[in-house]
# Entry
Amino acid sequence: MRYISTRGRAPELGFDDVLLTGLARDGGLYLPQSWPQFSADDIRALRGLSYPELASRVIGPFTGGCIEPAALSTILTESYRDFGHKAVAPLQQLEPALWVMELFHGPTLAFKDFAIQFLGRAFDHVLTKRGERVTIVGATSGDTGPAAIEACRDRDAVDIFFLYPHNRVSEVQRRQMTTVTSKNVHALAVEGTFDDCQDIVKAMFNDETFRDDVRLSAANSINWARIVAQIVYYFHAAVSLGAPDRAVSFAVPTGNFGNIYAGYAARAMGLPISQFIIGSNVNDILPRFFDSGALTTGTVTPTISPSIDIQVSSNFERFLFELYGRDGRATEAAVTEFREKGTLSVGSNLWHRAQDTFDGYRTDEAETKAVIGDTYRNSNYLLDPHSAIGVASARARRKDSTTPVVVLATAHPAKFPDAVKEASGVYPELPPALADLRERPERIEVLPNNLQVIQKYVRAQLGIAEAA
# Structure
């Protein structure tokens, strides 16, 4: 298995190098040269497997032998061993043909644990074999940072720095980063938006001197290994509901497009998925694209669903690459135009092709709260604000009432307790392992929205002198 960049100018790499590299040298994102294919019989053979066993079957073809099967099995068993539910990703039925897949039973109570628990152990495995060390730098809108820090804390071969928008994540999300005392962990509050944090991270990767000096790597979903681990739960849900003999649809609250792109990959591999529904809050760049064919940025508005307060969806480049027929030059030109002008129109033919793949729905604050309250009263089930957006989107945009729709419940309601209580009247408590989170002392480092200042800070913490 070889990997290529969405911009077509970076060298092809194997899985281990893609894992450690993160962003391609030409600024693009890595994708497999071709999709592994699962036949109907291959999918049926996944029935009855434990989650780690199923994950080994799905991820194995992507590693190309870089991680031997026995080691991959061990990594995956350890990744999901301490999740708080024996099914790892249990399915709960809300109403006829509407299901919720709970992706919040990991150590940081968010779906990012599925990918990043794998990522941290995969880093350890590959780096130990090579005798190397890396510096992970990432941006988070609230969930990736805690998950990455939890997976990488105290690891010998990794230093980790995560940027988050100051005062724009929930208290629980912030404390999950700032209360970690491990010396290799650094949580940085940036005076700006998530998009600002993401731009700084990309600029670090594009600064080849800095990148090489600190041996930069990524834990954001720009890293292909993040996406490949998320493909697994689409197979898990679909097989649980009857695939390949019955198609399933998915509704996904998404801002950065990585979570739903993993579903796109699963369908490309042969999983029978009938419909993808993108759920958004008022920061609705993705639904607006699928409604109009124009990708246009707007002002980021803080909401009660902060993990999708995003106006530049970095993983959308992977879909554009597919939309442009895997033409790296065309993809790079499109991305450049979008970043320079703040808008990109793909033309009617490509727009209609995009609409054949995804539907989008925008939920405002009032509707999000109403869905949380109504779902609790009618089903005795408590949703967090992001998962509520998924439920609202499924109800509004599903095309076939007989096809099961699975909503990806991306976070535990206790990560957003004030919003959940206001909407439902119930204050969700943190699980016992995190019950004292609000009493733990914090380390908060606030830095300006400035690339050079943050690069200087990273170098100083690593003890690496600035380049002459």
